[in-house]
Amino acid sequence: xxxxxxxxxxxxxxxxxxxxxxxxxxxxxxxxxxxxxxxxxxxxxxxxxxxxxxxxxxxxxxxxxx
Length: 66
Prior knowledge:
The protein is an all-alpha fold and 66 residues long. The protein has three helices and no strands. Helix content is 88%, strand content 0%.
């Protein structure tokens, strides 16, 4: 789980949020900053669900939850 935590920490600011801040601030000058944060959180939420499903399937707990 350490690699996933590092992936989330790095991807949150460096890979997703900072480039989106620059991009959306030029496209939408007033609303680009809040949009970048919302888009970053949505993408990371989807990524967290995917990682959780993979973890549950690998541990065998996915079959017990059904």
